[in-house]
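FIELD: query
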Amino acid sequence: RRLARLGLAVARGFAGSLQAKKGMVRSLETDTRFVYRDTSKAKPSEIAKKDTTVQRVDEEILPAPRETVPKPQHMKRKTKEETIEERTDKPRDLFLTLLAFVWFCAFTSLYVQLDGLFGRDGLAPAETNMRARIAKRAGLWEWVQASRSTPSLLWVAVYYNLDVLLGMKLLCGAGVLLSLHAVRNGGSGWIYGTLWVCYLSLVSVGSTFMQFQWDTLLLEVGFLGIWLACPTGSQPFSGYAPRTIRQLLRFTLFKLMLMSGVVKLQSGCPSWYKLTALSYHFATQCLPTPLAWWLSKLPENLLKLSVWSALVIEIPATALILSPFQIHRWIDFCLQVLLQVAIMLTGNYNFFNLLTLGLCVLLLDPNGKQKNARSLMSKLWRVLHFLNFLLGLALVAVGAHWILPLSFARSLTGTSITLDTNPARISIQIKPILLASSLVGLLYILACGMLDVKSASRRSFVSSKFRASAKSFLVVVGGLIYFATSCTALLSLDSSLLRNPGGMYAAEVYGALSPYHITSGYGLFRRMTGMGDGGNGQLVERPEIILLGSKDGENWEEFDFRHKPGNVSWVPTMVAPHQPRLDWQMWFAALGSAEEHPWFINLVYKLLHNSKAVRDLLNPEGPFADAPPRYIKADLYKYDFSKGSTTDWWNRKFDRRYLDVVDADSPILMQYANAYGFSTEKPSKRVKPHQAEDLQETILFTCAFIAVYEVVRRSLDVARPSLVGSR
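FIELD: result
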């Protein structure tokens, strides 16, 4: 009888373990046996009766449990919560937080400039440009073609004859709210995906003012961040191939830095080969900082060594990103952070440096330091670790000597340092580097993909195991396709590598995906501007456009911009991560002519007609804030940082007339406007003009969006089982 009762108790316990997924709660009573209680359907009285019966059977069969001695802390078995907490990927979490903060900076900076840039009375009206791309009675196929070439949610506003500017503000508002939520509470893949779609919709219709390389880089990194964040908001290592996505993000950093370094040498710019780039860069960059003025006074040879160090970090040291050793990636992390912080302190490049620093964070080890138990093995490991560290430094030194050899020439004035290479030699050396990096990157993706699929298959139940494995496998396959298109942009540094069937097919795929900015090529600071002496570093001539207005045609006053240099006493400011896009485009316009930049003609016209939206982009405390001028002209000056002891920050001299004197009805202004498609008529009233009720509808729509999002998020939290098995 006792054996039968014991067998019955064991059978009940085994049956309860099979039904653990349906609400069974396991409780540990002794160190030798488990008792299971079904709390899903039983009443409290039945549970108490069942516990009494099992306790009576146990007292008859088994002796009283022995008093157990508590185990030491290091020998205790860790719970599932503690294990998952230890496996939390801190570099991944920090990267996603930085990415969310960059999204917030990008949306916020753009929102305050929407009216002046893309409004109906702005410099590049988004609604006018979008309607010009499609006929009035276009069919469904024409709308599909327009959406493919210019992917944007704003086509919905154009189709239903709504205000495009209001749609852009709603997208920016949604981006600000979602990015703030992701910064504070962490975001799922759905949040990062929504941010990516909103920004893509704005970039696609932003024309000239949204065609910066950091906008493209943000879209590329943001697209990969969707998959790294896991769309369900679950913990890392939950079946979405985190290793594969991490390696793709590392390869994106590798591509960004390598292409930025190689294009400098391929351009043949003498400032890079003579190592005099910094002699021009501090004063000729778009928006310098006060620190740039002080650093421009450093000794010439020190500036040359700084240029050489920057090239070493961008080309030879970047190869350590693809190294299989963590200590090598740590070396590159330190070098890249040093370069980005230096750029951030000397120039205003909005969110570009923060985004690059976020990519550098992924070079750190997600598992942290691993301690060895044995002292002998620990000492041996430290020695090998230090030797591996020296090996990484040696690889950087050998690469620098091979690609960037220095030449020292002594003269009466001192020692001159230059690069002992040329563009032809660089083209020969870069080809094996591109092939080797593409092959190593492919092997990394394959290895990480196999590890992701294997780790995703380790699940408690068969159904979850299959679903997680299939999910990871699809992400890995998509990662391989993405890697092929990303390699196409990298291999474009040597066009001969793409002259084969595989390269041509990859180039076609790359071209088809280019409107979505999923991956792209980069080339920052290809050539130095403002070289007045052919690259010797002695004469700096920064071109700068000065707009002047007058009410009588004799007395002229300068328009004062918010951040770009104008008056010689203007003090450089720190505005990053905000990007004043008009000030940036004025810097590009000074490198060409007025005919090459049609938006500049529209700027002059709007200032003559006192456009409030455009006037807000300039300094509100400047001249002509109350009444517009009657005449406007534009002169081109050559700027440089001031020398010696003076209260002025700049020196300038007149170069040429950039735009002749025009008035509101000038034939030249009308000719330019008609030639480049800018309307000189006042904005026509809409059929249903927006009134005060539109603001209420916008607020209600935003509140409804937040409410729906919170309901969905909390529903997912309730439906998802917790880590310990209860709900």
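FIELD: remark
Residues 88 and 235 are 8 Å apart (CA to CA).
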